[in-house]
Design a protein that fits this description.
Two copies of one chain form a homodimer. Chain A is of the alpha+beta class. The first copy, chain A, is built from three helices and five strands; from the N terminus they run βαββαββα. Chain A has helices at 14-24, 39-52, 81-84; strands at residues 2-8, 26-29, 32-36, 58-64, 71-76. Chains A and B meet through β1, α2, β4 and β5 of A and β1, α2, β4 and β5 of B.
Chain lengths: 86, 86
């Protein structure tokens, strides 16, 4: 499935979460990632994320069965041009 | 259409962008918003956003014709429970 992930982490744990998300998804902006994941990969990502998360930390996942159902538009500076074309 | 909006703004302009996005969408986390917009509303939102944006500021929009094509999952703290149930 196609996944958009957005996290809101305490500064102390943000580096760890960034590293984790980059292992599974493509970074597109600040705390936003996207990519294609299997159900098993998504499950592993969530388990690992929960191990990092504490207190107010939060993670939102938007899942779409097909990437074609989702159109992306960037207004202004594109932060990671390479990742966008992967 | 159903829209997810994520911005990455310079601290100087973030309050203005937050105010603008709240006029059109529901705030769900940090710099993330979602909601149903018509084509005309989306166009207005983009025009207004571009007036605020400078330099490295960036805005990403994910658009889906139907909200049912997109499943949302929150891991950890839900930041704005009221907006989620609107």
């Amino acid at each position: 499935m196609y996944v958009i992930l957005v996290y809101d982490m305490n500064q102390k744990r943000v580096a760890k979460m960034l590293k984790l998300c980059r292992r599974y998804l493509h970074w597109i902006q600040n705390s936003v990632f996207e990519g294609e994941l299997t159900g098993v990969q998504l499950k592993s990502l969530k388990i690992e994320a929960k191990e990092i998360m504490r207190g107010d930390d939060s993670l939102i996942l938007f899942k779409s069965k097909d990437e074609r159902w989702l159109e992306k538009e960037v207004v202004g500076e594109e932060k990671n041009k390479i990742d966008n074309f992967l």
